């Protein structure tokens, strides 16, 4: 690799070489009247839709480790995280912008594998690349902006929860955190066949579920679980000016086989505070609860508590009730 | 400042404390149906408009220096840079997303001053904050996404230049680069009264000019000068599949007073390769050239050359003609 070729236009060319168009995102691409290669991208909003805007950091050392996370997982996950915020509003992703900073030494194989993972996610989420910014940096820095759309008035906010509404989660909580712990424990790059590690490396935002909950009007409030149930539930409650009573026995925790030998870990604590699950947390007025299936396209939907007028968040365990403190991911607090 | 208060929600609260609404951006705010504090922002596109999307890195050590650039300049410039890409399409900014990573030690005075500069820019450019992401990091990392709008079919791309079109620039070139050199030379923080340093610290994107050139249909191609004339002109020519002949004697260089004592510097070289001016570079079909004023709202408009069928970019000086090589800012090339 010649040094003179290592310029920004060349990195851009490499990004462009990947086909961002496929059967998966051809529809979304119709919204893009101008893609990469100009000062800005041009996006054609659909009539009767609101535009959803969200961005997410994905930084080496903070959100992933260069020696533990395979580059195609970094590519997949940086987009999946941001797309999950669109799922949490009940919208559909339309396109994304990629801001990428990396060392010159990684513009070969690492960048190629990163782009393979990113492209897979782009096709899967029907969310083509529209533009971005690249620069050189000693650490890998990624910021992804996702643009989505929702039918006017259908986007589900965090602020719609009312006392008496039932609280639900999708999937099982704590799986991604357990996957991370397994990943860190192993030497070198860990097996991607382990379902917990897979959930940590290649999370699947609940797009279909979020869209269904929004379009049917079943969810009164919704957020995605990125920082952990304790942190994200408290944010939903704060936005809605309510509290909640969680039934600990009902929280769907990770199913750990003895062979996994994760000793000294309490699955409930990990379900309460573990991050990166990208499941949906949502509330449903009790009169509508009977309309919710037990599973939506194979994904478990579990009632785990109820919204209260009292603004505290309480966890009811079999023998005691205690107030929840946010123990999830917060970069400005010293780690637990 | 108590450690337990240094969490992400607190940084967010501080950002929210700044009034992002004022006489300057009340109109733009109407487009935002949901601002900060949810999973995503909701933006209401105007009928008959295309959405413009752009994002820009602004990284400590790469784009600014913590000990040289005052925090309010960092706040102003991170938004101005991204807004300039909207100006280059002839659009109007509507809102922005802020991704901010910083050390806990800077969440006091530094963050306050940063937000003052950012808010000033937000009001000036009529571009309110819609959302973002914050995290902790040893170095200051900023990424700004700006959402703008243009009337359908009016956005000016890089690709519309044709042989025979005249090439124009706004303002004077190289001023910001000279400002940076003055800033680096001085001990401590330099005087913001010096007009060259001001242009480097507080650039003013040419929003009104860009919008006028787009709405009148005068500009056939346009880009902003962020990386330097040599780099940005070559990108415009590549996108349009044309070349250009620059008349070096016509390039409006910085007016340097002897008192500034910048020795050994060639104003023409700095005008050709210096970055960060955020002036507009645009092409105009020759039959429309007589409609361009010499100045637009006090900003000089100068014809500096002509687009050619031959794809090289040539610089014609008084005694010689040579081919231009991009010498502007490119983070993946070793610095000149």
* DSSP summary, beta strand count of chain A: 14
Biggest chain-to-chain interface with counts: A-B, 71 and 71 residues
Give the overall shape of chain A, derived from the CA principal axes. Answer: globular
Biggest β-sheet of chain A, characterized? 8 strands, mixed
Average pLDDT figure of chain A = 88
The percentage helix of chain A is: 25-40%
| Rg result of chain A | 20 Å
Q: Tally the helices of chain A: what do you get?
A: 9
How far apart lie the N and C ends of chain A? 44 Å
N to C succession of SSEs of chain A: HHEEEHEHEEEHHHEHEHEEEEE
Strand content of chain A: 25-35%
Q: What is the structural class of chain A?
A: alpha+beta
Low-confidence stretches of chain A: 1-6
Oligomer: homodimer
Spell out the key features of this protein:
336 residues, 14 strands, eight-stranded mixed beta sheet, alpha+beta, 25% strand, four-stranded mixed beta sheet, homodimer
Structure description:
The structure is a homodimer of 336-residue chains. With 336 residues, chain A is of the alpha+beta class. Chain A is 28% helix and 25% strand. Chain A has nine helices and 14 strands. Chain A has helices spanning 8-17, 26-29, 71-87, 109-124, 175-185, 195-201, 207-215, 229-240, 267-273; strands spanning 32-34, 41-43, 49-59, 92-102, 129-136, 141-151, 166-170, 221-224, 243-247, 280-284, 295-296, 299-308, 313-316, 321-323. In chain A, the strands form three sheets. In chain A, strands 7, 8, 9, 10, 11, 12, 13 and 14 form an eight-stranded mixed sheet that branches. In chain A, strands 3-6-4-5 form a four-stranded mixed sheet. Chain A has a two-stranded antiparallel ribbon with strand order 1-2. In chain A, strand 13 (313-316) and strand 14 (321-323) form a beta hairpin. In chain A, helix 3 (71-87) packs parallel to helix 4 and helix 5 (175-185) packs across helix 6. The longest helix of chain A has 17 residues, at 71-87. The first copy, chain A, is globular, with a radius of gyration of 20 Å. The first copy, chain A, starts with 7 loop residues before the first helix and ends in a 13-residue tail after the last strand. Mean pLDDT of chain A is 88; it is low at 1-6. Chains A and B meet through helix 1, strand 2, strand 3, strand 4 and strand 5 of A and helix 1, strand 2, strand 3, strand 4 and strand 5 of B.
């Amino acid at each position: 690799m010649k040094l003179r070729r290592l310029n920004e236009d060349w990195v851009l060319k490499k990004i462009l070489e990947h086909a961002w168009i496929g059967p998966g995102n051809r529809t979304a691409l119709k919204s893009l009247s101008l893609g990469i290669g100009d000062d800005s991208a041009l996006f054609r909003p659909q009539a009767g839709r609101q535009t959803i805007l969200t961005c997410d950091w994905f930084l080496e050392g903070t959100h992933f480790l260069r020696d533990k996370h395979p580059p195609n997982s970094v590519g997949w996950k940086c987009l999946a995280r941001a797309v999950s915020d669109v799922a949490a509003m009940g919208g559909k992703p339309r396109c994304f912008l990629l801001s990428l900073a990396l060392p010159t030494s990684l513009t070969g194989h690492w960048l190629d594998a990163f782009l393979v993972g990113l492209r897979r996610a782009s096709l899967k989420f029907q969310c083509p690349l529209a533009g971005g910014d690249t620069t050189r940096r000693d650490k890998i820095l990624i910021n992804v902006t996702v643009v989505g759309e929702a039918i006017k008035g259908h986007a589900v906010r965090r602020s719609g929860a009312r006392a008496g509404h039932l609280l639900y989660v999708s999937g099982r909580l704590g799986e991604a955190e357990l996957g991370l712990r397994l990943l860190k424990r192993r030497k070198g790059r860990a097996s991607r066949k382990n379902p917990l590690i897979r959930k940590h490396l290649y999370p699947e935002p609940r797009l279909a579920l979020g869209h269904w909950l929004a379009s049917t009007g079943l969810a009164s409030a919704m957020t995605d679980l990125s920082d952990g149930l304790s942190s994200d539930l408290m944010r939903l409650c704060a936005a809605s000016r309510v509290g909640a009573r969680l039934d600990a026995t009902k929280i769907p925790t990770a199913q750990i086989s003895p062979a996994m030998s994760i000793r000294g870990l309490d699955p409930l604590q990990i379900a309460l505070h573990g991050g990166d699950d990208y499941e949906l947390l949502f509330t449903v007025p009790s009169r509508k609860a009977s309309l919710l299936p037990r599973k939506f396209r194979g994904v478990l939907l579990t009632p785990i508590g109820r919204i209260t007028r009292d603004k505290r968040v309480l966890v009811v365990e079999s023998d005691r009730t205690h107030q929840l403190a946010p123990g999830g991911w917060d970069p400005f607090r010293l780690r637990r």
